[in-house]
Amino acid sequence: MTQSPKRLIEVDLPIKRISEHARREKDMRRGHVPLLYIWPATRPPAACRAVLCAALWPDPADSFCPQDFRDKAAQLINNFARSAASEKDVAAHCSPETWEKWQRLASSSGLDATKEAHWNVLRFALLDFIADFANYDNSTISVYLETSRALTQAAHEALGGALGTKPLVADPFAGGGAIPLEALRIGADAFASELNPVAVLYEKMLLEYIPRYGTELARQLITWVDWAKGRAKDELAKFYPEDPSGMPIVYLWARTVICEGPACGTKVPLIRGLWLARKGDSVALRLIPRKDSKKVDFEIIENPKPKEVGEGTVKRGAAICPVCGYTTPAPRVRLQLKEHQGGAATAVLFCVVTIKETEKGRSYRLPTERDLRAVTSATEELKRLEKINKEDLPLVPNEVLPIMSGVFNAPLYGHITWGSLFAPRQALMLATFARLARDYVDSDGSNTTSVSKDALACTLGLFINRLADLNSSLCGWQLSTPNAAHVFVRWALPMIMDFAEVNPLAGAGGSPESVVRRMVAAIEYVTESGLKLGSVELASATRLPLPDDSVHIFMTDPPYYNAVPYADLSDFFYVWLKRSIRHQFPSLLGSPLSPKEEEICEMAGWDPVRYPQKDKNFFEREMGKAMAEGRRVLASNGIAVVVFAHKSTSGWEALLQAMVNAGWTITASWPIDTEMASRLRARNSAVLASSVHLVCRPRGNHRASVAEENLGDWRDVLTELPLRIRDWMPRLASEGIVGADAIFACLGPALEIFSRYSSVEKASGEEVTLKEYLEYVWAAVAKEALNRIFEGADATGFEEDARLTAMWLWTLSTGSSGNGAPDDEDEGEEEEETSGKKGKTGGFLLEYDAARKIAQGLGAHLERLTSLVEISGDKARLLPVSERARHLFGKEEGDAPTKRKAKSKQLSFSDFLEDVEQSEGGWGAKNAPKIGNTVLDRVHQSMILFAAGRNDAMKRFLVSDGTGQDQRFWRLAQALSALYPSGSDERRWVEGVMARKKGMGF
């Protein structure tokens, strides 16, 4: 059999430029395909498009590349260069660097694939094309589409594909559909499968219905929304009364509890913050306590000074009474809300946001009796309709909502059914639109359209789901917009104490018009690309309905171990799909809730009661089956790309073990920045900004058993490992990839060595496990990273605490997003008190196992560094410098003063420094604090002296006592100044010390 050439992705990839386009695409609002529907961890199409091109196209510089592909590729790139140099659409969206290259190529005689010297140039021309094609603005331009499709076809035929066929790309965890969508865009066939019916319906719309019906589907959606809104207005207008002062667009509500303070009993509205708008003309709420009536009234204040705006009434789940000041503890708040099934139906309306067509901006007013009567009437109407409902399902979802602490926290407060997440008027509105969707699809009138009933029903069902996401009592009020947020700000169901209810008849954000605008823009965008039909199936990834050797690219983004409980979260949408389009899709929507038993996720940690069997072993076993199934369907010369972006070392190890067990050899890995740094989970912890794309091939003979494959020598593997890491690190650094992203990106090259063998054995004959090998990988990565941190200096000159601190901070760094700087405060989530004792939240968090691996690789011992690192459960915390003051300055816990309440906790260092000021002999004098034992201790001591304003003491410490004479002190301080997060106290303090270096004669 002819040797299969390397694909471009196995040789090179312009990851920095692709990442820029992927990040930009994440922030788009119109036309972006993931906005057609929401699904957890949807891949940016930009990254999928680029990776698929590079996976399908051979490397022209590879000696085994078919000459036929080189010839066609050179011709296509020459033609593209001429177009790029002349067409305004292309020139406008090329990077300046590549546009100049296209101009030079167009003005020359072009690439000649018969000349070996041009093969390498052709490789980089293809990579430049891929980088520019990743730009969203280029994804529908004809010359890009035509060139990419021609290249895909040329590669397919050159690699042995039958004439008239296309390469098949399969994704068994298709989720948001980005991978199969981009496969269709670049001229491949696409097979998408999912176990979850919600995802299958979305994929059918994206990959089957939109390509088949195009803009007609968008037109039918618009027609239905106009029809449905007219009927809904007839039924619902009385529940959303118009106002001469302006059309109400949002109603702001607060759940309530009764103050449990002695002799109080005030009804306390639970409001996180009193600002209503902070951009432009600011607006805030003022609470007016009424002790006699035991209630709280409200006042709207415009353009207040910050000091005029008080605090909210809820903090970490506890309620603070504005009347008596008593704090009702979080457990009691939860208990009270449980009595009212979450309190959405008993919440108090405290503000109405209005808008006038003739004026710009929003107005804010207090609710009127008319507003309150409308809400009461809506509640009564919902009860009436439930009584006369003749459907076999209740109008409002009564399916049970599970409790999964940390993910599904709303049930802790009494939300025991999916329907309880909606206030009565919201539930009435959604039930009305669900009925109108069902009636429209079932009516004879819909048969006159050129769109099938399945396509129309699917589109309307997904529309109802988007409407539900924007109209729930878990939708907070966003100050930054200002507008109502949607439920899934992150993929969880946290409790929201005060929430925003949208007026669906006002046409503003969260209304049917806003939903249809986004959906139509996405439909038109997909249609503009002129895609062929894809194929979508409901199937388990462990049992694909595909024959052996039928797939050319197996690319998938599998579940991230225990990161997201996909199936349980999808029930939020599933229950509404049942009530709107179940009659059209009985096989998909026939079960009470979405199927969960076969879902490949580690769920025992989230919910050990319902999922005791779904532990790490379950995940590894089932993922192994899925990877083996991928190997079965993959053609002998095909390749696989597996995407993973989980920070958990256990998640990584489980996936990698599954891939190795399934017989894959990893041939390359590429980290692509696909995540927004502002997302909630990115705060001060090692959450990946990148998704690592692992490129694989079947190991050895495609059909060989593991026993027939080759064995590796442990000594050879260990010799090659540090060399590969040393070669790879500079490349990552040049692309701006650092920290946890770089660590996990190094797993690819490391596993290229290990996974090429069926097993690796020591001289004794003992087989090396993947887990054991990964310990050595972490050590190699840590040592190489440390060498880079100290710019080639001998890092062994520093004690273990300095080495660990430097590596710890580097792991948390994010490169392009400000070295781990804290994000803006999230506006959509209530911070919850989950235990009676508030834990320390400062410092720098790592997963404990990651911290252990880093420490072990550096020769450090966490158990000996208790003054530096705190271990709590599965988390490890590098202490902030402020918390090290007692250790560094020799005071015991009992010696610390207790009456300095007015001073900031972080700056109350004077308590530890008085002996320094009073000592005539400096730090070595009797009773004075001792100079730190390690370089890190001494750097931290100087930082604390700077923070406390003790300049004389700091000068004596550095000059008189000789601390500053040690060049390691300044090398470490310089490194820490680059490693501490921007905006942190530590960064400011160490930079302050560095700024005084020259003035002290160093």
Helix content: 40-55%
Strand order across the largest sheet: 17-2-1-18-19-21-20
Instruction: Give Rg in angstroms.
Output: 31 Å
Unreliable residue stretches:
677-687, 701-708, 816-839, 892-911, 919-925
Number of helices: 30
What proportion of the residues form beta strands (DSSP E)? 5-15%
Largest sheet: 7 strands, mixed
Question: Would you report the number of β strands?
Answer: 26
- The span between the termini is 68 Å
- Average the pLDDT over all residues and give the rounded result: 86
Quick recap:
The chain is an alpha+beta fold and about 1000 residues long.
What does the model show?
The structure is a single chain. The protein has 1002 residues and is α+β, with helices and mostly antiparallel strands. Among the domains are: 1-175, no CATH class; 242-378, no CATH class; 896-1002, no CATH class. The chain is 41% helix and 13% strand. The chain has 30 helices and 26 strands. It has a 7-stranded mixed beta sheet with strand order 17-2-1-18-19-21-20, sandwiched between helices. Strands 13-12-3-16 form a 4-stranded antiparallel beta sheet, with no helix packed on it. Strand 14 and strand 15 (483-484) form a beta hairpin. Helix 10 packs across helix 14 (453-470), helix 14 packs across helix 16 (566-581) and helix 29 (967-979) packs antiparallel against helix 30 (985-995). It starts with 14 loop residues before the first helix and ends in a 7-residue tail after the last helix.
